[in-house]
Known about the structure:
By secondary structure, this protein is α+β, with helices and mostly antiparallel strands. The chain contains ten helices and eleven strands. The strands form three sheets. It has a seven-stranded mixed beta sheet, with helices on both faces.
Amino acid sequence: MQISITELREKVLNTFKQKGFNETDAGHMADVLLWADMSGVKPMGIAKMIGSEPVQDEKATAPVEVVRDTKLSQLINAHGAPAPLVCQQATDVAIQKAKEHGFGTVGVNNTHCSSAALAYYVDRIAQENLIGIMMSRAGGSVAPFGSADPLFGTDPMAFGFPTTGEPILFDMATSPVTWTGLLLAKARGEQLPENIAIDGEGNPTTNPTKALEGAMFPFDHGYKGAGLGMVVEILAGPLVASAYCDFKNAETYGNVILAIDPELFVDVAEFKANCSDMITIIKNSRKQKGVSEIRLPGERARAAYTEVQKTGMVDVDELVLKELGYIA
């Protein structure tokens, strides 16, 4: 359903403020969620405001705390504050440290909801002429290779690289669909694709309700996808004193953000020019039969975002708008 981005932002801000968030914090969280909807990444947008872990219902039990701080790193205990809010703070710190020392990394633990679209954060970093990397682990929903237990989260990773134009963005989950995607399929009464999930007994299922009680396979149904999930589980789990394989349920979600200054290796202008040249080479390469256009990761999302900026209208799932009371 098409809705004015100005109207949607105002509604989202009001929802957050009604839940006790101040104008600034509400704005930071709205930025993350609306960026996803504007980019066409709907499960990572305001869909995060419905379901079992609505972001606006997350409340900190204590002030956000910097547990450890060095010139290159910082560890933040969110104390239950919403991940999209704390990860904005973490991104700011990573950028500052990278600009001062060439490299900055920040870990966030003790958040109980998703950080939403990781591409948003690495895009912010890349816009500062830095390389951005982010990984996030969540509650168990994906089975390791050969296992029937949901030990890994959907465990996404994202990368952002500055160019002479818009940054190159690559954002992927190590699961075939997101957790929110499962919830939306259940709410719509839709079936899942074949061969992506098992029920609680380990049997293949296309029923999202049964999949929520069981586990998804890694995105490639193989050991490589499971291996990437494990890497994210480690870097956004034990490395940042967060959960892993749901070992510590009170600290389910973990995030790690890295910012790297290309100047550690080469002149940043040269790096950006070469990245842009690489894009040109790929786009101008020979097409396979039946392929009309060679697209790069993040290109479709960038086009969607640009179109929304031009028209002022964004397409949002009608079910989500109804759940939030934004439409009758």
